[in-house]
Sequence to fold (553 residues):
Amino acid sequence: MSEEKSLNFIEEIVEADLANGKYATITTRFPPEPNGYLHIGHAKSICLNFGLAKKYGGKTNLRFDDTNPVTEETEYVDSIKDDVRWLGFSWANEFYASDYFEQLYGFAVKLIEKGLAYVDDSTSDEIAAQKGTPTIPGVRNVFADRTVAENLQLFTDMRAGKYPDGSKVLRAKIDMASPNMLLRDPIIYRIKHAHHHRTGDKWCIYPMYDFAHGQSDSIENITHSICTLEFIPHRDLYDWCIEKLEIFPSHQYEFARLNMTYTIMSKRKLLQLVNEKHVNGWDDPRMSTISGMRRRGYTAEAIREFCDRIGVAKRENLIDVGLLEFFVREHLNKIALRRMVVFDPLKIVLTNYPDTVEMLPSENNPENPEGGSREIPFSKELYIERDDFMEVAPKKYFRLAPGQMVRLKSAYIIKCEDVIKDAEGKVTELHCTYLPESKSGSDTSGIHVKGTLHWVSVPHAVTAEVRLYDRLFKVEDVGNAEGDFKDHINPDSLQVISHAYAEPALLLDNPDDRYQFIRKGYFILDKDSTKEKLVFNRTVTLKDGWAKETKKA
Ligand code: ATP
Ligand code: MG
Fold:
């Protein structure tokens, strides 16, 4: 990953702006609307905005775009701050668009005074009908002819709460024939008698997105205002307002939003999943939210690497979620502690092993020379994985079978001598012998076996619940799939193993540690864990199982 990367188009713009002295330093902002938890698409925007400022020695503001009073909550504000911090970024300032309400109101008054805005009493249907179509110009109504004095009075009265919701709006007077529909006298203020999470009941008129976003950028002296492609048509209005208000000339630049396979990225849809209980909350480990990914065990480093690698595109595309998982695996491989956990136990008894316990050292992470080691208790009775044994094994089966030998990881070579079954013929236990001279690290047995199994000592085993996650959706392009997106939910996205058996070192580790359960995947402790029961989430499998499935099909 160390090849010299060429600049993305936004970096090129920034470098040119700095080189020709347009700006001495850059300021960017990340402007979430606090109406939900952030998702991986927002992570892309965060990495881009904060990454640019970091690279060019500028700064980034965190600005809550909280101009819509009805959907915004403090819970969301807090979660957003947590997520940005967790991703590894710090903002220069924490701002709220609602803090600018007074200034924005002043901007509106200024437009009225310049004859560039008017109060319209039409219904929303009338306004829509008068707007025309992209090929037919719109028409102005009589309200557009109101005098400046009349408009100032009406706007003052709107603010004073004299009118009910929807009875009047303030519109910018631009061009009813513009090919850009957003310039056909756009609504810039509406009446909404609603409680706002920060301003309370102080306001009953609220600015529209297009009369808040660009202006907030200007107020903060944002040099590069980066947003997603759907805002391209808004740019003319963004520039018009700045020009007419004669305020700091922020500029808007658009890039393609991140879309990912098997994933939805819309707060509105994610909220539906939460409300309708398809998942267990915003931070359900199957969610594409940053909090879900964090709970699942993804690392901020891996997410940042991913965002960096996918780059900044000018055209929409669909990124393979497997790429994100690749970066997660790559990072976890370097940091995860190796531990042994048996999911579906088959007991084995080592008939020639004494009734004592031996502590066997094993490296925490062979990829990390400074990772140290832990000691694993080994005894006469062990659990192995039931599917690591076959009574009638095919050729080239290197796991355990009658008369066959395997190595137990960090321990000894064992040989299966006897298969014990119950009345129904189910295998209940294996009797094995071990080779004392085959101890890992001091093996003098001269015997080479091809299979190495993970295991746990029965009397020392710690029970744990293990949650195995799969993709939340069955189709690749959920956003464009037919029907309701919820029709495509994968019913098997969560498998719970309620009684797995873990080596006792797992009790002593730090809750933030990442694990590789040997031969099983990467895991992290879940917040549902209690003193009585450990709960682990599978972060990601060891290999990309879906790539294999697709090839097979
Ligand atoms: P959603 O539709 O999920 O609610 P949004 O765009 O309405 O997303 P905002 O809170 O308004 O969410 O977004 C904050 C910033 O994150 C914006 O600058 C927006 O362009 C950016 N953003 C949102 N989704 C994506 C995405 N999928 N890829 C890249 N950037 C995104
Ligand atoms: Mg939005």
